[in-house]
Amino acid sequence: SLASTAITCFTRGLDLRKGTEDVLCPANCPLWQFYVFGDGVYASLSSVCGAAIHSGVITNTGGVVRVQTLPGQENYPAVNANGIQSQVLSRWASSFSVTVILAGAKNTALEAVGRSVSTARPSTGKRPKKTVDKKAGNKDCKADIAFLIDGSYNIGQRRFNLQKNFVGKVALMLGIGTEGPHVGVVQASELPKIEFYLKNFTAAKEVLFAIKELGFRGGNSNTGKALKYTAQKFFSLENGARKGIPKIIVVFLDGWPSDDLEEAGIVAREFGVNVFIVSVAKPTTEELGMVQDIGFVDKAVCRNNGFFSYQMPTWFGTTKYVKPLVQKLCSHEQMLCSKTCYNSVNIAFLIDGSSSVGESNFRLVLEFVSNVAKAFDISDIGSKAAAVQFTYDQRTEFGFTDHLSKDKVLSAVRSIRYMSGGTATGDAISFTTRNVFGPVRDGPNKNFLIVLTDGQSYDDVRGPAAAAQKAGITVFSVGVAWAPLDDLKDMASEPRESHTFFTREFTGLEQMVPDIIRGICRDFLESKQ
């Protein structure tokens, strides 16, 4: 029969039993929660529906796909496609591929599902569904947007009204709704004024009305002041910002700013806000002398890569500029300044170098460290990694600021030399809290410590672990071989079950990698807005 099995967003290849199986993926899975390893051929650890969207077989509206089990392989690559960043995995025991079912077969499978649904609820007409969708908005566009409009004397009342019309058209095309984009407006003039917040309206009609009602304030165009104020104050949870959704400020500038934008741009990046600048009527050659900083656009935008700046010659005939701007604002994967678990964490690895580990198992431990580190965007403004090896003594292999790129971190991990000696895990945790996390304690990133040990500690681990947690560090304990479960649980953060890992053999470390990465991301999302 061609009927398909309905699965969830999180069903993995290894959860399916048959060699070839037709499955129905649900709609609206949260893209950022997908774990996908590889490209085209996916490690069986991967989410099936995630792989199907990544490979372009279906979109986030779901659908039926055919899953084919394949043998394992080495080096599954990381590729960003269709809004999903797949991850690297060095080896896995089995794989799968995802394909479209041929047109005839696809219909039968969907009909089988459709029939069972319609017999259960015969009254479901087509119409009610439409209104629900309108209310939900464009679910494919994930964004919380502040339009920072120019209310200065530079623009004047007449062009201010044209600006309002343009912002209204952009808001309309975005597809605002409960599950779509949310928008608010801030007016920049002498002093910034938040006109309405993200939480005030979730229907396009209401937003359009609110934009129409905006009054022109006049004054200097202190855009820098307004940008800084918006980045700091606008996107709070109580004002309607949503967790895990990109924060965007679209700055409209008629002419040039009266103040400096550079500091505001830095503040916005620190707060994880993506700044776009829409400049209209750029300063003429004569006017350039009045501009404080000719490169003001490059200093304020999220990244100076051309994507975040947008130009319109005048406020007249702007309709053709609406769609390209909306497409940019809805490009979830291009929002390089958003804080995600991948670019906003500090992860320190505390590595047991005691003599019971042995040289060849120590290599497997280092491979585990590399595979976890590989998943994160390590850079000077992104995530950071550090490593400490311990026996009775501790040795900082590298601190958070020593290597500011993923390649450098991975090569530093490879060159760690095995110490061999006793096991004083408690002391090592205290040492790491003080010396490795101390210097970054007030930084923007969330702190994680992964303790890897293969045996009983000679000293108390509970006190040092509690102190680390009190200092804002989330602790994962990973035990191998003779590591006692009580010690592992005593070290781990709450809830202990999801922060404690154990394997009999060092070869089992590799299978824990996706769960550790997922755990870090889960903790990150729960802690931050």
Give the N-terminus to C-terminus distance in angstroms.
Answer: 47 Å
Radius of gyration: 26 Å
CATH class identity of the largest domain: Alpha Beta
CATH architecture of the largest domain: 3-Layer(aba) Sandwich
What share of the residues lie within helices? 25-40%
Number of strands: 20
CATH superfamily of the largest domain: von Willebrand factor, type A domain
Number of helices: 16
Tell me the strand order in the biggest sheet.
1-2-5-8-4-3
What is CATH's topology name of the largest domain?
A: Rossmann fold
Mean pLDDT, rounded to whole units?
87
Beta-strand portion reads 15-25%
Number of domains: 3
pLDDT < 50 runs, ≥5 residues: 103-132
Q: What does the main sheet amount to? A: 6 strands, mixed
Shape: globular
Protein name: Cochlin
Pfam families: LCCL, VWA
Function: Plays a role in the control of cell shape and motility in the trabecular meshwork.
Domain VWFA: 144-329, 346-516
